[in-house]
Design goal:
single chain; about 180 residues; four-stranded antiparallel beta sheet; binds flavin mononucleotide
């Protein structure tokens, strides 16, 4: 797919077919994620791929509860990818402190989008989840408390391939040349 078509075709998928995802496809998505740029090339990320049915259910139930249930659809996704932000390099920690900027979170966003765009190229749907019980997920995998689980990405074959119109601000609302005018 041409890059812009990929951008248009990627959308958050919240309904999945009951069809397993080939490991080769998952590996290519992870390879795209691995090659993402990061501040000082610190690559402050790691990924847990969960495609074991029982384990996947244990993760999925950490993404919703009786009150806030919009992520219940994750139960249906054949694969869940847990994205952990690893300790930034010493250089990055210093840079983050001096500049008061969390570079590692920017890096996580970039790698996550690389992964999702490659998934689109593979004919797969994804949805990034930022809302989940982080402590509960850490406990399941013995992830140290000092680490952060930043995102869970659902992955699988979409129930429908229809592309929804994108709800976005108009270009006039967000762009200006040579001045700031918001
Ligand atoms: C950091 C981040 C966290 C998100 N968290 C959730 C989530 O917890 N549940 C969900 O259903 N969608 C979540 N989304 C998906 C957004 O709602 C979605 O990307 C946005 O509405 C635009 O729609 P589109 O992805 O279909 O283009 C998240 C997206 C991002 C980038």
């Amino acid at each position: 797919m041409k890059f812009f078509d990929l951008v248009i075709t990627r959308q958050s998928v919240r309904k999945y077919l009951d069809k397993p995802v080939e490991r080769e496809k998952i590996e290519r998505c992870l390879e795209a994620a691995r090659l993402a740029p990061s501040a000082s090339n610190s690559q402050p990320w790691s990924f847990i791929v969960v495609d074991n049915l029982k384990l996947k259910e244990s993760v999925a139930i950490k993404t919703f509860d009786r009150v806030i249930s919009f992520n219940r659809f994750s139960l249906q996704a054949p694969v869940l990818i847990i994205l952990i932000s690893e300790r930034p390099s010493f250089l990055n920690k210093v840079a983050e402190a001096i500049k008061d900027k969390q570079f590692s979170l920017i890096d996580i966003g970039i790698t996550a989008e690389h992964l999702c765009l490659q998934a689109t190229e593979e004919g797969l749907g994804t949805c990034m989840l930022g809302w989940f019980n982080e402590k509960g997920v850490k406990k399941l995998f013995n992830i140290p408390l000092s680490k952060r689980v930043e995102l869970i990405i659902t992955m699988g074959y979409a129930e429908s391939n229809q592309i929804r119109p994108k709800k976005r601000k108009s270009i006039d609302q967000i762009r200006s040349y040579n001045s700031y005018r918001l």
